[in-house]
Amino acid sequence: MSPGGRRPGKADTREEIIAAAREVFADKGYEGASLRAVARAAGVDAALVHHYFDGKAALFTAAMSLPFDPRVVKDGVPQESGPGSGAAIVEGFLTMWDKAEGTGSSFASCAAATATAPNVADAMREFVIERIWSAEPARPGEDKKLFARRRALISSQLMGLAFNRYILRMPPLSTATPRALGRWAGPTVDRYMEGSLG
Fold first, then answer.
1. pLDDT in tens, 13-66
2. Any residues with CB less than 8 A from the CB of 179 and at least 6 apart, and which?
3. Which of 3, 37, 83, 196 has the highest Cβ tally under 10 A?
4. Could you say which of 1.20.1250.20, 1.10.10.60, 1.10.10.10, 1.10.3720.10 is the CATH number of the domain covering 13-63?
């Protein structure tokens, strides 16, 4: 036992931290959780949590068994807006999930976790808002309600494609390449990002 009453790091400490993080995120949501609270729940020093995870987002990604941080997809999209950005978002999003198929971090396993536990879904939504949408400014002259509508519609397009591809396995969405799906669905995402929503 360490002088402060905290256990030093050992071989399975990382997994114990992840298990504690799942409970803390489920209880407090993403916004309400802190690395210090996770450390307390795991019975380790907060510095040990920082040793294994580079911030709260990295810990949440591991705790929820996400195969990637959603910001990785956004960072891979060309900075200039306009036609083509939607295709890159769709392609990047589905490519990441394709790589996760057959692992414990597949789309189906993550969808099951959020579907069966509303508090997990709440935490997931807060995480996505912080990692993607908080860094995306509203368009000039647009109010927050319209911006919220845009991001909800983009999310619905991406999640709908993923649900049909990985859970329903509906051809041709289940058999086409992410690049092809980007060409097909990208213009819709472009309209949600930039066009009139009526």
1. 999 999 999 999 989 999 999 999 999 999 999 999 999 999 999 999 999 888
2. 91
3. 37
4. 1.10.10.60
For the ranges 34-38, 92-96, 130-134, which has the lowest average pLDDT?
A: 130-134
Q: In whole numbers, what is the pLDDT of the chain averaged over residues? A: 86
Q: pLDDT per residue over 66-76, tens digit each?
A: 888 887 776 76
Q: State which CATH number among 1.10.357.10, 2.70.170.10, 1.10.3720.10, 3.40.50.1820 fits the domain covering 70-194.
A: 1.10.357.10
Look up the pTM and report it. Answer: 0.77
Q: Count how many residues are written for the chain.
A: 198
- SS3 string, 147-196, reads HHHHHHHHHHHHHHHHHHHHHCCCCCCCCCCHHHHHHHHHHHHHHHHHCC
Phi, psi of 67 (to 5 degrees): -75, -15
User: CA 189: distance to chain centroid?
Assistant: 18
